[in-house]
Specification:
With 349 residues, this protein is of the alpha/beta class. The protein folds into two domains: 215 residues, Rossmann fold (3-Layer(aba) Sandwich), CATH 3.40.50.620; 90 residues, no CATH class. Helix content is 47%, strand content 15%. Helix 5 crosses helix 9 and helix 11 packs across helix 12. The longest helix is centred in the middle third of the chain and has 29 residues. The N and C termini lie far apart (82 Å). It catalyses: cytidine(34) in tRNA(Ile2) + L-lysine + ATP = lysidine(34) in tRNA(Ile2) + AMP + diphosphate + H(+). Keywords: ATP-binding, Cytoplasm, Ligase, Nucleotide-binding, tRNA processing.
Length: 349
């Protein structure tokens, strides 16, 4: 039995990666996202020695945010060559935003990885997110006011612009990947931003050992995410089916989304609010990135559960806006469409 902080051996590594890159996999090629840190270096090393059944290519995204980033990417290229893997450095070029830099870097990273995967004929991108990353994500989303959808954390597999993004190490503690690199002598780099207290994730990372002393371990946070993910899958399926069932024609022919009011009001609130979230995304996809149910629920819950749903139950009228979408309750219907443009204020005169 493997130790909770011990290195991953060749057979265990091959087993973790077999569904993704092993013989008989459904994928035709994979890009390994490798920054040079211990997590992604372990991913690269385990993949190289794990009898892959499809072509593998290593990609390092150089965000150009630190003087050492180019040298770190070159070091990854050298190790990839030693392991018999192809490598490409992907540069994030152009101006960088002054605010929300980490979010912009993350979006650029996935965009570059997806584009490169298509270039090399791969349909799978693998990242080395760990159990510790999952715990940090749950804490960050809790602090941001996320609902169950956000607290479900990162999924082991999700869509990436028509490709598949996989996280084979999501249930593996980071300590094991660090130990794997040390045992194999694989050189790693350490990004100073991971401990930079200017960033929220780094501050929460410092709290994890203290929370663990009280019993709130990374493993328990990750298991919470797994339970919520199962619950969310069931609720999402129920909400999607209800949305289809409740759709009604737009009598004005304006392309608005119209839902049956009494039917929506009769649903359990946990399903009804998800129907509302899906409807908001469908009514104005540009307002909700990815066209997905929003993670931050405060305004949706406050507006829909506190005002719109009671109006549907009482048969009264109510008009409110969420994420650029106008929700209008009245006449036995809930109608959703883009928020009308605001009229410019007239100068006093």
């Amino acid at each position: 039995m493997s130790r909770p902080d011990g290195p991953i051996g060749p057979e265990e590594g091959a087993a973790l990666l077999a569904p993704w890159i092993g013989p008989g996999t459904a994928y035709r090629g994979a890009v390994l996202a490798v920054s040079g840190g211990p997590d992604s270096t372990a991913l690269m090393g385990c993949a190289a020695r794990g009898r892959p059944g499809i072509p593998l290519t290593v990609a390092t995204v150089d965000h150009g945010l630190r003087p050492a980033s180019a040298a770190e990417a070159a070091a990854v290229a050298g190790l990839a060559a030693d392991l018999g893997l192809r490598h490409r450095t992907l540069a994030w070029t152009g101006p960088k935003p002054a605010a929300r830099l980490q979010e912009a870097a993350r979006a650029a990273r996935y965009r570059l990885l997806a584009s490169f995967a298509r270039e090399v004929g791969a349909d799978l991108v693998l990242t080395a997110h760990t159990l510790d990353d999952q715990a940090e994500t749950v804490l960050m989303r809790l602090c941001a006011g996320s609902g169950p959808t956000g607290l479900a954390g990162m999924a082991p597999v999700r869509d990436l612009d028509g490709l598949t993004l996989g996280r084979p190490f999501l249930a593996v503690p980071k300590a094991r990947l660090v130990a794997t690199c040390a045992a194999q002598g694989w050189p790693v780099v350490h990004d100073p931003s991971n401990t930079d207290a200017r960033f929220g994730r780094a501050r929460l990372r410092r709290l994890l050992p203290l929370l663990a002393e009280e019993g709130l371990t990374a493993g328990r946070l990750a298991r919470l995410a797994g339970r919520l993910r199962r619950d969310e899958a069931a609720l999402a399926a129920a909400a999607a089916a209800a949305l289809d069932d409740l759709r009604r024609p737009d009598s004005r022919g304006e392309g608005r989304l119209v839902l049956d009011g009494p039917g929506l009001a009769g649903l359990p609130e946990a399903v009804a609010v998800r129907v509302a979230g899906l409807a908001v995304a469908a009514a104005a996809p540009a307002a909700v990135p990815g066209g997905a149910y929003p993670r931050r629920l405060e305004r949706l819950e406050r507006v829909f559960l506190g005002e719109v749903l009671p109006a549907l139950r009482d048969g009264t009228t109510r008009r409110r806006t969420v994420a650029g979408v106008l929700l209008a309750a009245g006449g036995g219907r809930l109608t959703l469409g883009p928020e009308p443009p605001r009229r410019p204020r007239q100068p006093p005169g």
